[in-house]
Prior knowledge:
CATH architecture of the largest domain in chain A: 3-Layer(aba) Sandwich
CATH superfamily of the largest domain in chain A: Response regulator
Number of helices of chain A: 12
Oligomer: homodimer
Number of domains of chain A: 3
Amino acid sequence: MSSDLTEPGTGPSGAAPTLSEVAKRAGVSSITVSRVVRMPDLVAPETRARVERAMRDLGYVPNLVAGALASARTNSVGVLVPTIANSIFADTVQGLSDKLEPLGFSVILAQSRYDAVREDRVLAALLSRRPEAIIMVGSPATEEGSRLLRNARIPIVETWDLPANPIDAVAGFDNYQAGVAVAKHLVAQGRRQLAFIGGDDPRGTRRWFGFRDEALASGLSEPRRLILDRKDSGSVAAHARLPDVDAVFAANDAHAIGFMSGLRKAGLLRDGPASAQPVAVIGLGDLEMGQLISPTLSTISVHGDAIGRTAATLMLERGGERRIDLGFELVLRDSG
Amino acid sequence: MSSDLTEPGTGPSGAAPTLSEVAKRAGVSSITVSRVVRMPDLVAPETRARVERAMRDLGYVPNLVAGALASARTNSVGVLVPTIANSIFADTVQGLSDKLEPLGFSVILAQSRYDAVREDRVLAALLSRRPEAIIMVGSPATEEGSRLLRNARIPIVETWDLPANPIDAVAGFDNYQAGVAVAKHLVAQGRRQLAFIGGDDPRGTRRWFGFRDEALASGLSEPRRLILDRKDSGSVAAHARLPDVDAVFAANDAHAIGFMSGLRKAGLLRDGPASAQPVAVIGLGDLEMGQLISPTLSTISVHGDAIGRTAATLMLERGGERRIDLGFELVLRDSG
DNA sequence: TGGCGTGATGCTAGCGCTAACATAATGGCT
DNA sequence: AGCCATTATGTTAGCGCTAGCATCACGCCA
C-alpha cells in the first residue's frame, strides 16, 4: 500500500500527474482514462471505478491545454470590456459567465480601458488563445481590430450597441433612440434648456446625437454637451458650469447621481416629484442605487445581464437571427 | 503575386495558418518564425523582415495553446470572485488585470456566486487550464477546494481577508478589526443600541464578530444582527425591523445606502452632521456614491484595486513577505 | 456452425509549438 | 594559418491529450 502514501498531485518527477500515469496505475490505456473523464458512459463500470480510484489517488487534474490542442476545442470565450470596475458592464460579464460556466466554458476577460491601442493588443492576445467566440462591448475601435476579428472565423458578438455593419452578431439597444427618448420626455415636460454630460466614447456619443437631434427637431436651441473624464464623478459638472440649464441627460447613472449632488449643494434639488425640480436629471443604466437616493433617479433602464445572456446564446447558436435589440425603457421617478 | 491575393487568415485548408506555413513562405525553418515572435533580437534584421512580411501576408496569429503545451507556461492567471456584478471585487479584478496585462498574462475569470459546490467546480475547471497562479477572494469554502489548490503547486493568493492559515499568499485586511473599529467609534459617539446588517459570508461574519465583541466589551448589550439576502438592497432592513436601534453597521456600502433610504422614509435621516442623526449608519467599501448622497456616508474605506495589484505582485514574486495587510480606514462623514 | 452486430478497449498519429542541443558562417586574435 | 568566441539558423524530440480507426470477446441468430 506504499503507493497510497504518494503525495497526491505529485508524479514521479514532482510534476502534475498525466493521463498515462493514471492509465498505468489503473492498468488501462490512456485513451480509456480520457474516456472516463469525457464520456464515462462508454467505459464499463468496473473499469471506470478502477480509473476513478487511480485519478483520486494521484490527484489527477486533466490538462485542458493539451486537450484543447488535440481536439481543436478550447471551451473558452474571450470577453472584452472597456472597464470592469464600477461599471454596468460587470452585469453583462456576470450574465454571460453564468450562462456559459455550466456548459464548461471559461471566460477570458480583458479590458481595453477605452484605449484603441490597448484594445488591439488585448484582442490579439485573446485570439492567440483560440477562444471559440469573442464577446465584446461595442465594436472594434480600429480597422485593424476589425480585420483581426473577421479573420478569426469564430462567432463575434458586439454588445451594448446596434452597429450598422456588425462583424457577426449583435446584442444591444439603440443608443441614439435612447437619447431621442430622453429629449422627447424633457421637451414634453416643458424643459427648454437641455444639456448632456458624459464621456465621448462611441455609445455615449450616439446618445448625445439622438438627444441633440431631437432637441433641435423640437425647436429648442442646441443643447450643451459637457464631456467628462472617466475619473470624474459627475459632480464636477456642477450647475455653475451649466448655468440656465433646466434639464440634464447624463450618459450614465453615476454621472447623474454626481450631478445631482452638485445640484444639491447649489440648492437646486427638491425632495418632491419631477415637476418640482428646478433642474431635471435623467440617467442611463438603472443602477439600483438610483432608487435608493432622494429624489429617486429617473433613468433609461437597460438590462446588462440580459445583454450578457443573449450574447452567450448568440455565440452558441450560429444560425438564426444575429441582431437582437434588447431595447431600453425610460423609467420615470422623481429626478426628472 | 498571386499569393498576395490569398485571403488573410486562411491557410490551404481554410484553417488558421501555422508557424510552419509562415516558415515555408518566408523560406526559413519554423523555429526562426517562433523566434521572430518571441525573441526578435535573436534574428537577423533581413530575415526578420521577411518573416514579418510572411506573417502579415498570411494573417498569422500565434497559437498560444500549442505554445503553452510545449513550453509549460500558459501565461494565464485564474481569478475567482464570489460575484463580479455590482461588487467591489470588480475593482480588484481591474487592478490585477491592469497590472498583469502588460506582462502578457490573461485573466481567466470565474464566479462562485457564494456557492461552495460551484466554487469547487470552477476551481477544478480553472486548474485544468493550468494557470500560473490563482487569485481568489477569500479562502476555499471546502476542504476539497483547499486540497485542490495546495496540490496545484502554483502561487495561490487569497484576498480581502487575512486567513490564519493561508494556503500561500494573502493580500487583504482584518475584517474583524474593521468591525471593532466601527463599534468603538459608535460607542464613543454615545450610541447604545447597535445593529449589524449584511450577508453571512465569511468576511461579513468576521466583521460581525469584531463588531459584536467590541460592543459587548464596552458594556453594551449584544447588537442585533440582520442577515440580508444578496438580492436585498438593504432597504428591506427598514427601521421597522430594528426598533430602538440608534446605530447600524452595514457590511457593505450598498446595504448602508439602502438602509438609509429606509430611514429616510421613516423620517429618521437628517441632512446635518453625524451628531444630528437619530440613527448612525456606517458602511464598508467606500463606494464613490457614498460621497454623493446626502447625508454623506461614513464608511470603512478599503482599496479594492490595491488589493488586486498587490495580489498580482504576490503571484509574480514568489519570495518575500507572503502576507500583506492593506489595512482599512474609518472615514467619517455625515451619516454616523 | 459460421457470420455478424455490439460493447469495451487499444493503437497510432498528430495537434502547433518550443527547449535543448546541433551546425554553419563570420571575423578577430595570436 | 589556425583557433575560437559570437551570431544566425536548423534539427530533433517531445509537451499531454484526442480523433479515427483497429481489435477483440461475446452472444445471438439463421
